[in-house]
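Archive transcription. Copying these from loose printouts into the bound notebook so they stop getting lost. Printout 1 of 2:
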Amino acid sequence: MQSVPADMTVKVTCSAPVHRRRTSPMSIWIHIDGTQPSGENDRMLAADPTRLDGRGGPEVRRFLTGVVSCEVTGVITTSDQRRMFLNLQHPGESGGCTWPRMDGLTVRRSSTVVVVNDDGSVIGT
């Protein structure tokens, strides 16, 4: 995978793009792993080569930010692209996080997350 040139990093800075997946002609999902220049958590970016940013490059936006010390992996969508499944691996591995703890347990667990739009529209539009 080619790294994103500095002149195309729009609205976010990042290092170590490790996964990418195209789900439609207008949606390219990029997973970022590793130590980020600004100290932020790993994240997932949405790139749309059909839209241009203010500098004439493809629009790249932050889609989500993972919890502390997790890796965002395994994105896949349903055939109608109205549901997206992705994984958050080893959250809080370096401490500072016990996600998900909605069940009262404090043990960190990798998880699969399902993303849907409130209005049921295609993810990433």
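Printout 2 of 2:
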Amino acid sequence: MARKLSNKEHKKRLAIYNQGLRDKEIAEKIGVSLDTIYRWRKAHGLPRNYERTANDAIRFSLYREGKTDREIATSVGIKKNAIWYWRKRNNLPPNIHSPPHTITKEEHELRLSLYNQGLLDGEIAKAVGLSTPAIWYWRKKNNLPPNVSKFNRLSEADAKRRELYDQGLTDKEIAKNLSVTLCTIIAWRNRRGLKPHPPPKPNYDDRLDEIRALAEKSYSRQAISRELHMSIWTVRRLMREHNIIT
């Protein structure tokens, strides 16, 4: 059975707790287990004290200067969400956002140049180091319609690929024509359930006379293969199909 805590002991723990010490530090100072302090704090509805870091003083200083969560996060090199949670733990209301930044003529011309190249809002934002909504508002303010979406770009590429496919071109020929990799065309064809076009069969009619001439000279199949730079299997097939005897 748990020992009943005296009023004096409770006040002692509470005084240490109010100094901002964490459960582990309170337990070590009093000489009890961590679980004992945890249960005591929960029984009295006391929230957990958070570890104080060297950055706390910097955060408070920046907060008192009127900096926003994003500005504080940038200054101390952490994420904005971490500052939001830190502010909530300390019951601090958010500071009013800084007034909107007025862009210079050079900044406007840079964005306009990227826009005229056909870049999307996100691509422009990445190039100039801003958020996508910032570019969206800039574009709306200047009455600029959005550039063609990536989906439509892919649709145009898809139409070109299908046109070449319908002409009977092989995967390799389509890839070479569009300057893309063979794997890209194979993946595209598989996604659409299209069968590959077989490569055209080579025409050996002009080589038959050469094979006959060498066979009449008693060349072996291997010798004919080496002489005409053809595979031995191709030579054997053509000689069999056209009754050429060596």
